[in-house]
Design a protein that fits this description.
Helices cover 73% and strands 2% of the residues. By secondary structure, the protein is mostly helical. A hairpin with a 2-residue loop joins strand 1 and strand 2.
């Protein structure tokens, strides 16, 4: 979607602030869940790679290998998302949400029966599909599974307004990116609380968030809202 389209009020339903904030909440939530339950990150593969090599250089190969499965699962999730975009076109996002929901429900149901890494594999795959499918908010590139890029864009937009004479509308973009960071953090906090309080049911919350996203995306014409 071009900048002119966004300026004219044409915004894809899956790029609206409402949808992206729900996804950011789910992204922070499942990262907290996998860290507490499995000791790895579902979304932040940078952290997994760093910890893998930190333990490897210390000679603790057992702990180092612990971080390999989520990295591989994340890779598989990206491949599946790319395949869905190729074969399903505009339906790819809805299908990816269905796959994510099914995986989370499956992991949640089998929480007490699956080995730790099996649960991590499913959740990392879900995180990868979300990262690959939902990459924009109102036409601007963003992330719903990590905050680094969102934080950078929020600060840069404020700087552009204060020192570069950018249009005041740029402040709205900054506020959106800041909200993404804040909601991601709220999701992580909720995930940490729920995982400690009721671990067997904790994954029900991101499932509900993803169901709302799916229903909202399908409730109106897929191309644009005005």
């Amino acid at each position: 979607m071009s900048t002119l389209d966004v300026a004219a009020g044409a915004i894809r339903r899956d790029e609206t602030v409402e949808i992206v904030l729900l996804l950011a909440f789910a992204g922070g939530y499942i990262d907290a869940y996998t860290w507490i339950i499995h000791g790895v990150m579902a979304n932040a593969q940078t952290a997994n790679v760093i910890l893998l090599w930190v333990y490897a250089m210390a000679g603790d190969w057992t702990q180092a290998i612990h971080f390999v499965p989520p990295i591989l699962a994340f890779t598989v999730g990206i491949v599946i998302a790319a395949w869905l975009r190729r074969v399903a076109g505009e339906r790819a996002r809805a299908l990816s949400l269905l796959v994510e929901i099914v995986f989370l429900i499956t992991v949640g149901i089998l929480h007490n029966r699956l080995p730790d890494l099996a649960g991590t594999l499913g959740i990392s795959l879900v995180a990868a599909m979300q990262a690959a499918m939902f990459v924009k908010v109102e036409g601007s590139v963003c992330s719903t599974v990590m905050i680094t890029g969102n934080m950078r864009q929020s600060v840069e937009n404020i700087f552009a307004v204060v020192y570069g004479g950018a249009p005041l509308g740029t402040l709205r973009k900054s506020a959106i990116f800041f909200a993404l960071c804040a909601v991601f953090g709220c999701g992580a906090a909720a995930g940490a609380f729920a995982t400690k309080a009721f671990p067997d049911l904790a994954l029900g919350i991101p499932v509900v968030a993803l169901l709302i996203v799916l229903l909202r995306c399908e409730a109106t014409p897929r191309e644009v809202i005005r």
